[in-house]
Amino acid sequence: MTSMPVAQRLGSHIKRAEQALNAAKNTALRPSGLTVPQFGALLFLAENPGISAAALARACGVTPPTMNTVLKNLQERGLIERTPHEWHRNILETRLTAEGEKILAEADARAIRVERGLAEAFTAEERETLVSLLGRCAAFLESAEPS
C-alpha cells in the first residue's frame, strides 16, 4: 500500500478550509436562526424563484432528502412557500416569502462580512489565483474517472 502523509494531501487542506468557513458562517448566521445549508438554500431561491427541490439540492450540493428536510424547516418558519407547478402538478415550486426575504437580507449581511474578512487575508492577485486554482480543482474532480 502506498501511503501519503496527511500534510501532503490536498483534500485535507481543502476540507479544513471548508470546515473553518462553515464554522465561521454558522457563528455569523446564528442570530438569524439559520444554518449554513438553510442560508444556501435561501440564497439560491432568491436568485431562482420557483426552482424545484431536486434542482435546489443539486445547486446546493446536498442530497434530495437533505434538501427536503431543509425546505421543511424553512417552510415551518414561514420563510418559504411551496406551491404546485402550473403544468406539472407533481412538482412543487419554491419561493421566498416576505419574511424569508427579510431574514435572508439580515443573514447575508453577516455572511458577507465573513467573506470580506476572508478576502482581505489575500491580495487581489492572490484572490484571483485562489479562485482559479479552486476552479481547476473542481473541474478535475468533476471530470475524474473513479479509480
Automatic annotation (TrEMBL):
- List, alphabetically, the InterPro entries matched: HTH_MarR-typ (IPR000835), MarR/SlyA-like (IPR039422), WH-like_DNA-bd_sf (IPR036388), WH_DNA-bd_sf (IPR036390)
**What sequence ranges are listed for the domain HTH marR-type?**
7-139
This protein is called MarR family winged helix-turn-helix transcriptional regulator
The protein's organism comes out as: Actinomadura rugatobispora
